[in-house]
Amino acid sequence: MKKILEIITEEIAAAFKAAGYDEKYAKVTLSNRPDLCEYQCNGAMAAAKEYHKAPIQIAEGVVKALIDSKILLDVQAVTPGFINLKVSADFLSEYLNKMSEDNRLGYEKAKAPKTMMIDYGGPNVAKPLHVGHLRSAIIGESVKRIARFAGHHVIGDVHLGDWGLQMGLIILELKGRKPELPYFDPDYQGAYPEEAPFTIAELEEIYPTASAKSKKEEAYKEAAMQATFELQQGRAGYQALLKHILQVSVSDLKKNYKKLQVDFDLWKGESDAQPYIPEMVEAMKEKGLAYESEGALVVDIKEESDTKEIPPCMLLKSDGASLYTTTDLATIVERMKLYHPDEIVYVVDKRQEMHFIQVFRCARKCGLVEPDTKLTFLGFGTMNGKDGRPFKTREGGVMRLEYLLSDINEEMLKKVKNSRPMAEEEAVDVAKVVGLSAVKYGDLSNQASKDYIFDVDRFTSSEGNTGPYILYTIVRIKSILKKYEETGGCADGALIRAFENENEKALMLLLTRFNSVMETAYEELAPHKVCAYIYEIANAFNKFYHETTILGTEDETLKKSRIQLLVLSKRVLETCIELLGFEAPERM
Ligand code: ARG
Fold first, then answer.
1. What is the residue with the minimal CA distance to atom 5 of ligand 1?
2. Read out DSSP for 478-526?
3. What distance in angstroms lies between residue 348's CA and the mean position of ligand 1's atoms?
4. CATH assignment of the domain containing 60
5. Does residue 433 surpass a pLDDT of 90?
6. What are 407-424's pLDDT values in tens digits?
7. Could you tell me if residue 210 is inside a domain?
8. 532 alpha-carbon distance from chain centroid
9. Which of 108, 292, 474, 484 could serve as 584's disulfide partner, Cβ 3.0–4.6 Å?
10. 3-state DSSP call for residue 391?
11. Do 310 and 360 form a contact (C-beta atoms < 8 A)?
């Protein structure tokens, strides 16, 4: 369906033309004075220059041409030359009825679908998920859903961190504990065991132990670096251990992401990109782009317009070891080869921005991507505690994701039990569903690039701009609809009638913005725009609800019309929260 602003713009364009002016001046926007009008056109001001007339004169001419409009009512020219617009009640309800009939609520699919890869999550294997990874998972999941809803072919890749020093540390520590295992015997020729020689609980203990040791003992650290190097050179026993570490770690990660309703299409990692490195580096050398500098292999990526120093991109260290940058470049090579994306979006902590500037520039300069392949860095800010510093546990350690979620669920459970009596089991389930909305909405309602304060009290409150408030509104609609059905009501096929009061009209106007909000949220990769939209709808709906009789309406067709408006509001809200990555319970 055409967006409502497009329809109005066409109407105004016709009026400009009829009044003898160029249509290009007919740009319509949402009004910045909602007390006076709903939409406005300021084109008369710009047209005044071309036609050497007073803007108000032009505005009046356009207004005159709109006298018979079926879409616009009460159009006014206001000094110095604004055109204030209001839509007619019939046009508004007609638009909503068309939305109701459409299974995409009037939002058209992209005409030229793109293949988009979203690189998000980015957990490091064998290290527990911490809150830093939470934002990437939440934002990336929502961006993926928004892009998919827009009609694009979207591939979400978790891009595991499975190629760093942490692997060498684990191997070394394990070797100290169980030296008899065949993985450590360089002459071993047989097949390695199927089963991993550790559980996830052991693995999660091994890494921090080894990491602490390496900080104290220089020799231990060097041995770990050596093990990492040998792993990277392909030592068979270590490769087999890597497989075990991955298996155990990934099945645990999958469990955690499932709880978050985060779902990846690909479970690839840094290690998958390694085979592409030698050829990639060779080609860069051959093209004369990569050269040796102080023993390391680098590519210059400075550009004339740079206002700050952009250091060269390092590909190989003097000992031949590859780096984080090398891996990301090789991952681009792999992705282009296997999936041919038109765009790759990286949802990563904004403190890694310089790394991605280097990777993107180097990829372009060396022709790893097509000239029109878009590389997008969606950097997010830090999640802080109430003290304004990066979120920590009460003891001051790094907060693990599970603890954070259980804190939220505990607080939510208290609130749920206080709201109405219900069985323990139901309360636990409801608290989980609502708790997830608290965490996700608390995060997504902020512009991604900004830091924000994680405030359990505020996020779990059912009042204010929170996930639980949105869910309360949806549950309220569900309960009215249920009551209506239980008393034998059926509004199938009924039409939404013209509004009767200002609150109803305000709700209707908001609903018509659905397709335009979806489009902006996709274009700007901005879930916070979806949050802001549903917060406005929830407010408008609750106002309408408090001042309007719904089930007690005497006039049957009016009652049905109101029920239909509720159904449409619910569909819009539910579609939006699905794009944010959470859902509403039946009751709260
Ligand atoms: N594993 C990385 C970290 O924990 C994040 C990975 C981000 N994605 C990427 N392609 N570099 O910091």
1. 122
2. HHHHHHHHHTT---TTPPPPPP-SHHHHHHHHHHHTHHHHHHHHHHTT-
3. 7
4. 3.30.1360.70
5. yes
6. 899 999 999 999 888 899
7. yes
8. 14
9. 474
10. coil
11. no
